[in-house]
Design goal:
The longest helix is centred in the middle third of the chain and has 11 residues. Strands 1-3-2-4-5 form a five-stranded antiparallel beta sheet, with no helix packed on it. It has a single domain, classed as Gamma-glutamyl cyclotransferase-like (Hypothetical upf0131 protein ytfp, Roll), CATH 3.10.490. About 10% of the residues lie in helices and about 30% in strands. The protein is globular and about 35 Å long. The protein is mainly beta. A hairpin with a 4-residue loop joins strand 4 and strand 5.
Amino acid sequence: MPLLAVYGTLKKGHCNQGFMRTSTFMGAGQTQDSYWMPHNGAGAPVVTRDINLKPVRVEVYEVPLEVLEGPLDAIESNGRVYTREIIPINMDDGSKLDCYLYLHNSPSVIWGYRDGEAMIDDQPYDWS
């Protein structure tokens, strides 16, 4: 089964976590690479790769293929709003996994990034 790293509404305790009910929680970690994670107008985070500021905290799940390619790709508008890509995840237990992650297709300028935006701290993005 494929592995999916989630960072927003699919995480435990959030509104779309029900889509993960047939998936197996594998643990938590963070992206190996850095991204930018603003919030969209609806209050959910998005991750974009065109600005590299910080790693992103994620939960990793083993997901049935029919769930990944069905309801999850549908709610994430895979191929239109988001693109599901395989990226490296550094797990909290020290292991490394290659996982799918939904990356937003809009450039950072859409989300109001201003040149020179500073990191407030050295902690990874974590939408809890």
